[in-house]
Amino acid sequence: MDKNNALILWFDQIDVNDVPLVGGKNASLGEMYRFLTSKGVNVPNGFAITARAYQYYLEHNDLKNKIRDILSGLNKNDVNDLARRGEEIRRLILDGELPKDLADSITEAYGHLCLQYGENTDVAVRSSATAEDLPDASFAGQQETYLNVRGKSMLLESVKKCMASLFTNRAISYREDKGFDHFSISLSVGVQKMVRSDLASSGVMFSIDTESGFENVVFITAIYGLGENIVQGRVNPDEYYVFKPTLKEGYKAIISKKVGSKELKMVYSDDNKRVKNVPVEKSLRRKFVLTDDEILTLARWAVIIEEHYSQRKGKYTPMDIEWAKDGITGQLFIVQARPETVHSTKNKNILETYELEEKGKVLVKGMSIGSKIGAGKVNVIRHVNEISSFKPGEVLVTEMTDPDWEPIMKVASAIITNKGGRTCHAAIVARELGIPCIVGTENATEVLKSGQEVTVDCSQGEDGFVYEGILKYKVNKVDLREIPETKTKIMINLGNPDLAFSLASLPVQGVGLAREEFIINSYIKIHPLALIHYHSITDEKLKKTIDELTYGYEDKKQFFIDKLAYGIAMIASAFYPKKVIVRLSDFKSNEYANLIGGELFEPKEDNPMIGWRGASRYYHPKYKEAFGLECKALLKVRNEMGLNNIAVMVPFCRTVTEAHLVIDEMKKNGLVQHENGLEVYAMCEVPSNVILADEFLNVFDGYSIGSNDLTQLTLGLDRDSELVSFIYDERNEAVKRMIKKVIDVAKSKGKYIGICGQAPSDFPDFAKFLVESKIDSMSLNPDTVLKTLLLVKETEKQVCGE
Q1: What share of the chain is helix, strand, coil (3-state, %, to 5)?
Q2: DSSP for 77-136?
Q3: Among this protein's residues, is 660 annotated catalytic?
Q4: For residue 170, which of 129, 120, 230, 213 has the smallest C-alpha distance?
Q5: pLDDT tens digits for range 191-221
Q6: Is 684 known to be catalytic?
Q7: Which of 341, 515, 527, 795 gets the most CB atoms within 10 Å of its CB?
Q8: Per-residue pLDDT for 713 more than 70?
Q9: How far is CA 767 from the centre of its chain?
Q10: Torsion of CA 554, 556, 557, 563, to 10 degrees
Q11: In terms of pTM, does the model score above 0.90?
């Protein structure tokens, strides 16, 4: 067969090298159809109408010169001029006639599908540009897709509509911006048997984290019904993360699950519109779309696809993949795959961070896309017909976007939408354009007013914030190749799991202090004993609040275990296989009381700072069953997810007897020291930890010095009191002698010794003291890492004469 002249190619005839004939999307489908089916991956059958057929159609109707004439003198920055010319070209193409041999070839191929699947079988008709997989250009989403196409006449009309969509306004604008000749790009049309996801679910997954570019996860989104809603941003989807390294080792490596609102689903329609949106039953909205087994299956498929295309291209190639579940057969399918084009082209040696230098009033909050900050005047646009009013540099605020909005999106300083998730159209385009975007705000179009000055901040992790006014911010750029290595390990302190992936590229040796408190406060919110004793609670209002937060969990205890495990896992996976030291919960009794239901279980203490906190809780009859939930969460992360780079750290352990009691209590809950390499450290923050260091270190595998508490307890002051704050100083000779002594003891016993605190960053002389004392590691807040690395390197040169 002469492929170059073929009008129709079945998917199993297409090779990945046939991009000039069928475009990136259909080349991927063809390649997948052969390769992935051999790997047990389900791919729907179908055929492609080639780029040769498209050129044949243009020649048959003598359209090329007419299109050139229409485009002559185009002002790409004038959206009205662009819209008028685009409409004229599309009408010209739609009014053309399909050559008889081409129409016959299409209907004959469709007939073969009907023989296989039934008369007038339902198909998806998908456009694919032949330059779609260029590394610096993403043509995805610029052409049209038609779902639930049935019958020969509807199929032929849909094919013509796909051909016309090569000249949508956004496609014309994109090619003009990229400098592509309009006739150097051709188009093929894929005709694919529909997967009945209208009766089940569908979604998008990436073999990379879409926000940070972290390469070790598969990010999966899922909704009910056909997948068009997720791309258009009409529905906030479920989100799942799977950790690739331990998935490959056979672990159940689901490290995060978040339920989306999923208020609508797209289903088949009996009228000419073919599809329609209907409300999702309320009972289903708050349930996860996918089972754990389905999540893991999709993640494995994503890894197979990524590895295959990386091998074919000779370089790491993360993938953007669409999947669907058939509601009749219950089978999962891969329906589309293409290379990811944002993070795969970035220079990974340059670390760029945005930092807000002022704070303002928060007007709107949503999901952040990217990690940048932008500012400008708001322009609220409710309909695409109004986009001509948009001026470059303004902040676009709208319900949601689709490809028709792209001509103004590219000149916006930031984008804010009411609807959408991390894989919606607005998010995808904002990433490619490199502009800050906040999606899923729900009310931005109501709260924000046109002409209002705002700052859009996506630098603080998962949540994006819109502040009133134009606030100052700075951009920091560091070439990681210029950062020196140090003998003293530099680690980071981290509590917010949403920041973990974005911090993974820092030149650090792991996490010296991973705090549980943020996870419990922000993800769980409920006192663990209120979950354990849920059925004994008589306050109906309190029970209703707990029911709302724990929806879908019959066993309320499992809610605590899962949420804590997912939070810890996000941090541990970001730095894997480097060590991540997780400090067990160290709330004071007044802080525990602030959790939902906490007042029922917490005492009133006059001085909680030195009261019932840390280790003293874990074995206490009134709290140890709650501590058991922490142990089970850590077991889940280590044993089920395979993240055995986690070490555990016990805070505020006052006596050696208490140390033994905590180790024993952990063992009762399955968390056994040294089993599967588990190390158990202690915070060195009480003077007794220093005085009896040799005995404590017979129990624990190492120490991390908590300089804040150690300073206040050595000097006998309340570090929260302004009256004595002038006395508080980690550099006090008494504190330094305590630190020097405990380092010496740890070194003599061959045990790990580190410090977690800001003193080394704030005081160069203190950093020098620690280096001279031969401390193993310093764990710092992320924003001081680079500065301290340079300082420590210089100090090591002075101390060691390097």
Answers
A1: 45, 20, 35
A2: T-HHHHHHHHHHHHHHHHTS---HHHHHHHHHHHHHHHHHH-TT--EEEEEEETTTT-TT
A3: no
A4: 129
A5: 999 999 999 999 999 999 998 899 999 999 9
A6: no
A7: 527
A8: yes
A9: 35
A10: 100
A11: no
Number of other residues whose CB lies within 10 A of the CB of residue 496: 18
Q: Where are the alpha helices (DSSP H) in 550-670?
A: 556-575, 589-593, 615-618, 624-635, 656-668
Rounded Cα distance, 567 and 215, in Å:
18
Please name which of 462, 457, 493 lies closest in space to residue 474, comparing C-alpha atoms: 457
What 8-state DSSP symbol labels residue 448? -
Residue 28 in this model has a pLDDT that exceeds 70? no
Q: Is 350 helix (H, G, I), strand (E, B) or coil?
A: strand
Q: Give per-residue pLDDT as tens, 455-508.
A: 999 988 889 999 999 999 999 888 888 888 899 999 999 999 999 998 999 999
- How many CB atoms neighbour CB 540 within 10 A? 8
Q: Which residue has the tokens 């469709």?
A: 110
DSSP three-state, residue 376: strand
Secondary structure of residue 219 in the 3-state scheme = strand
- Structure tokens given for 473: 């911010």
How many residues make up the chain in this entry?
Answer: 802
pLDDT at 801: 64
CA distance 280 to 265: 6
Helix (H, G, I), strand (E, B) or coil at 10: strand
CB 48 within 8 A of CB 123: no
Tokens of 294: 């389905």
327 near 196, Cβ under 8 Å? yes
- Contacts of 233 by beta carbon, 8 Å cutoff, 6+ apart: 400, 401, 402, 417, 419, 420, 421, 424, 425, 426, 427, 439
- 162, 308, 343, 425: the catalytic one is 425
- Give me the catalytic one of 162, 458, 631, 756: 756
